[in-house]
Design brief:
20% helix; Immunoglobulin-like; TIM Barrel; disordered N terminus; 560 residues; alpha+beta
């Protein structure tokens, strides 16, 4: 495919980025820009590729592993994972290439390496991991490999921070980590000064993009409800600090194998959500918030809950799903002998070991969780634009193969309408409909069964504007507006149309679906969510027997 192909002149120009299409033209030196132009004229680079900072004709390069590459409904739907740990994390084991090789085999198109922020990583790890990432980009051109880190958010939990590849990717990440990481700066306590440091960190990333030191950067808060320390006002402050950088949080955490029953599994909670409130927790959060529901975080899974309270403000805030892969359930690898993490910033390469890891809680990237992004092409820039735009749906266990959600004027079949993340603006009183098209699973997932979708829910809420109380985490008008049953034995694809009716106020809509194996009345009552995800049982929550997908929202706004 060639989006990271090194040409022969690379040997003459040791730091020549002319042939490295992950580096956009605005970052090239004049000589490099000339060489890139020459290469393009010589047919060594596709003109479209250089313009997009990506590969030439990416759709033509679709492989059986990467079915999302064929454009559908205007976009390539690229599956990815933004939360992955390697031997450069103090609690992980694998090489970068191990994760990339598995991600490629399990159908991922993009991924982010996010080793833990901290003293050793800030000092040497962030630099040392980069050659491994560059090498993996070259070895697996079918997978976009971003460099990022897992930020210890001052006063709060963790977050993925990642940047578009380029000559300053390491320098910016290193400066960010040394200046704003809660562990490095000893700023973990919930104080106003530490909360302000977190906001300043996000603003710093936005400034680096505006100054063109890096082409792009993004932030997603990780496992937001796990310890109860991400308060609603902090989440709002991150988002409002720079909405082009801070775009969302994990709707479902990684570590999904952690709920498998002992002795064949860890016997914990999915996501290792097994704790309880502490002195550092936001005191208003209910005790249920420390558990997952159908594998999803309480902030996302509660209809009318915290995520909905953010969406009701009419501001973008998106969800993702990923592996948080550190040590893989059922694997036999162990850390290389004579490792000295503190001295080297990494563990030695893993080796074969026994016994099999049945207390590990993770899956390989792409094996279970996917964040599916609608991208204009196969490129780093397009994936980041798709994430920022909210053209994203997530699923577990490959419950479905594809999802197309559109809002349009009712009955107007010539208009494809708007999709996830967008806003449909109509004249007040115009009837609107939501069209949901789902490609059903047709082949076994990695647990060797074909998932069966049983139910699809449309969740609707009013947009009421900025929250008067920044710590609010409910919104009263949001509820399941319509449920559709999927006909038993349905094959291929299914289509549902929800008639919203005449629109007289701004609203948002989102969609979720389930295999129907475990459901319960939602936390805010049957009138809000009659058949939502059930709270996961600590020590007995097989992730394969409780599968869900969630879409990000879209908005409808009347004018006049």
């Amino acid at each position: 495919m060639g989006h990271h192909h090194h040409h022969h002149d690379q040997h003459e120009h040791e730091h020549d980025h002319a042939g490295d299409l992950s580096v956009p033209e605005r970052e090239l030196e004049p000589g490099e820009l000339n060489r890139r132009s020459l290469m393009r004229r010589a047919g060594l680079l596709g003109a479209a590729a250089v313009a997009a900072g990506a590969t030439a004709s990416p759709a033509a390069a679709a492989t059986p592993h990467h079915p999302g590459r064929e454009p559908r409904h205007g976009y390539q739907w690229l599956a990815g994972d933004h939360h992955i740990h390697t031997q450069y994390s103090s609690d992980a084991v694998y090489r970068v290439i191990d994760h990339v090789r598995h991600a490629n085999a399990y159908g991922l198109d993009w991924m982010v390496i996010t080793d833990h922020g901290g003293a050793a990583h800030a000092r040497i790890g962030v630099e040392k991991v980069n050659p491994d990432i560059v090498q993996a980009r070259e070895a697996y051109e079918d997978v976009l490999v971003f460099q990022g880190l897992e930020w210890n958010i001052p006063a709060a939990e963790h977050a993925t921070v990642f940047v578009h590849p380029g000559r300053n990717e390491v320098a910016v990440l290193k400066e960010f980590e040394n200046s704003y990481d809660g562990s490095v700066k000893n700023a973990n306590d919930s104080t106003p000064a530490n909360e302000a440091l977190a906001v300043a960190g996000i603003a710093f990333l936005g400034e680096q993009v505006r100054r063109r030191r890096i082409p792009d950067a993004l932030f997603f808060a990780n496992h937001p409800a796990r310890r109860g320390v991400d308060s609603p006002h902090e989440i709002r402050a991150w988002r409002d600090s720079d909405p082009s950088i801070a775009v969302g949080f994990e709707g479902a955490p990684g570590h999904q194998a952690a709920g498998i029953k002992a002795p064949l599994g860890p016997g914990s909670g999915r996501g290792f959500y097994s704790g309880s409130p502490s002195a550092a927790s936001f005191p208003a959060y209910p005790v249920e918030s420390y558990r997952t529901f159908g594998g999803f975080d309480w902030m996302t899974s509660t209809v009318g809950g915290l995520w909905d309270s953010l969406l009701a403000e009419g501001k973008p805030w998106w969800i993702s799903a990923n592996s948080d892969s550190h040590t893989v359930y059922g694997d036999t690898a162990t850390r290389g002998p004579n490792s000295d993490f503190e001295a080297n910033g990494r563990y030695n390469d893993p080796v074969y070991g026994q016994p099999t890891q049945v207390t590990a809680g993770d899956f390989w990237p792409g094996f279970y969780s996917r964040t599916n992004v609608g991208a204009e092409d196969f490129s780093y820039a397009a994936v980041m634009r798709g994430l920022r735009a909210g053209r994203v749906w997530v699923d577990h266990g490959h419950l479905i193969k594809g999802l197309n959600v559109r809002a349009r004027v009712a009955g107007n079949r010539s208009d494809s309408g708007i999709t996830l993340g967008d806003t449909l603006v109509v004249r007040k009183g115009t009837p609107v409909e939501l069209v949901i098209e789902i490609d059903l699973a047709s082949e076994p997932n990695w647990a060797q069964f074909v998932p069966v979708l049983a139910q699809v829910d449309v969740i609707q809420g009013d947009v009421t504007g900025p929250a008067a109380n920044p710590d609010v985490f409910t919104t009263p008008s949001t509820k399941v507006a319509k449920s559709f049953e999927v006909t038993s034995g349905a094959k291929g694809s299914v289509r549902f149309v929800y008639g919203i009716g005449p629109v007289d106020r701004p609203i948002y809509l989102r969609v979720r679906g389930t295999d129907g194996k475990r459901s319960a009345v939602g936390l805010l009552g049957a009138g809000v969510d009659p058949a939502g995800p059930q709270m996961d049982v600590l020590g007995d929550a097989d992730p394969w027997l409780d599968l869900w997908f969630y879409s990000n929202p879209l908005w409808v706004r009347p004018r006049g």
